[in-house]
Write the structure tokens for this entry.
Amino acid sequence: MIDKEATSEISLNSPLSDLPGLTPTRARLFSRLKMHRVRDVVFFFPRSYEIPAPLMDVDQIREGEPASLVGEVTEIESTSRTPGKSITGILVENESGAVRLVFFNQAYRATQYPRGSRVMVSGTPKLSGFRMEFVHPKVTVLEEEDIAQAQILPIYSLSEGIKQWDLRGPIAETVELMADRLTEALPSSIRTQALVELEDNMRDDQTALPDIATAIRHIHNPPDEASLAAARSRFVFQELLVMQLAMALRRRSLTVDLQAPPIESTAMIDARIVNRFPFSLTGDQRLVIDEIRRDMACQFPMNRMLQADVGAGKTVVAIYAMLSTVAGGHQAVLMAPTEVLARQHHRTLTRMMDGSQVRIGLLTGSISRRERAELIVAVASGDIDMLIGTQALIYGEIEFKSLGLCVIDEQHKFGVNQRVKLRSGGIDPHVLVMSATPIPRSVALTMFGDVELSTMREKPPGRAGVKTYLGRDEWRNRWWGFVRERLDEGRQAFVVAPRVTSVESDEESKESVASVEATYEELAKDQLRDYQVELLHGRMPPEEKESVMRRFANGDFHVLVSTTVIEVGIDIPNATVMTILGAQRFGLAQLHQLRGRIARGTHAGHLCLFTDGGAAPEEYERLQVMEQSDDGFELAEADFRMRGAGDLLGQRQSGMPPMMVADLQRDEAWLLSARRVAQAVVEDDPTLGSPELDELGKQVRRRYAKRLELGDAV
Ligand code: ADP
Ligand code: MG
């Protein structure tokens, strides 16, 4: 044991050479594992643990169930029938009875555990005659003073040439030396609150998370499994709390520190808006609208993201918010990712506002210079109430007279690190972002932790739904027959392929990827020759794309063969059949988006997924999930399980640091608790200025200040 007096100068930042117990050879091993300072050793957490079977009496031991037992070696017998082959049997006894250990071809065991030695045996026994027998168990010889207990051992990540025992001793000593000197980042009130905010079924019997000294000891050398779980929870919670505090501070800096026009919505205005819709709102639409009304009534900007399943009716929510903004005397802008979508929104709004005073402008790449100039003037003077357009254009040079609300549709890259850069006269607009793809809640709270989240899972009533089939190649002809029948009934059909052109010149050509052009030619010549088929892809000029889309929406032709440009948002209720070729090349979320295109009307939709170029069995398995589930949130969770959080929307892409101990999927309950605690802490102390939050504030700054542009907020 290290003498604590002699080491009182050692701090977390001390180099390893200050540690008296660490030989230079060991120190070199440590540096190969990137441990250079005392801090690195203390926070070098085990990757896993060796959890021994519980200690038992002989009569508690059950065949096939792991068990440990302490006893004395009373008999040893070795037999060797053929040279080089031996069986060693060892009898271990205690007051409760005896068990037999059996080793094959390990004659040295007989000398390793001589008669009279006290041993601890762990393994999974089987019954042999009337006695429990352990074949090749783990055996530890106990010294006189050793307390026999089934000790949990830490397993550290190693690199070549380093063994667990090189690390275990020195780490344990360093941890023991430093444990009581660590600065506590979590005041006891927070350690208690963490459990109060945890969902009931997760709570066990803990009432508070352990303090740092206990947690650091137990994460390295847990006395039992409960202490290990508690220690782990503390570090998971702490990591998530630091992240959520950063998010809460940023939420605050994007809201209460800024000024926005309060938009009051009275019952009369509400009724007037709702009456404009040709249907009644779904329960979820109503709930979200009320959240938005509450947010917009404040004099700081709303910063909310609406996540909804495809077809849940986000547009209605957006229109509601825009109309109440205009009713409040301010302007609203709606930004869409594509021109096609911007025009669709413009059509919907114009139709809905028919006969009203509301003036709506459309700003896209295809309007003339003169129209554009006029529009810009009208927006600046306040002659336009609502402006719809693509993001790129609106971010250019538009000045608003009094912008009250900015809606961003079908956006999933928004979130941390992105701000809406539209202000007028020192005033920030309320912001509503509508997410294109449902994402798992835990990912949303990380990626979009700096915005308020609304979720709509419910779909409007009267939807006939979509039947999804995973097609086999030999069905293709039958499927096209089915498509023709639907077309004959007056419906329209989408065909989606992953590529525009087939690649022939390069090496990929042996892998035949379905393409829009080849598919179009084949269908127009063969299976669908009696129908009008057109094609659409991203390489066509915008006006042409727009006109194809418009004519398809008008019902001017039967079949649209396209790439995923139709993916987001397009609403054509008469199109009810979709064929996706090369389906294994798309993610589940994307397939679900595509499927959303034919789930819009009162006619049942039919989707058939074909693979191309010899898909692997796992890929079929993934596609089967599409057959089984029609819930975008469920599919997102499935994608998350199969591909992990990093892949999904990409944590990398978000620029957020990776989690060290927490796992967003496994630790979702702690994430929710951390979010609630963080919110309360920041409401109470927006600068984290109180002394007991000092260390926590430091950790937030160290990890997130730059990334989240927290500035001097903390
Ligand atoms: P998304 O959430 O995918 O953007 P949309 O806003 O495009 O969905 O709505 C999908 C379809 O559902 C549209 O045709 C819309 O008119 C219709 N719709 C929206 N809300 C309702 C409702 N409450 N009742 C009936 N139909 C609705
Ligand atoms: Mg939409």
Q: What stands out?
A: The pocket of adenosine-5'-diphosphate (ligand 1) is lined by residues 279, 281-282, 285, 308, 310-316, 460, 569, 571, 596, 600 (CB under 6 Å). DSSP finds 22 helices and 22 strands in the chain. The CA atoms of residues 274 and 280 lie 8 Å apart.
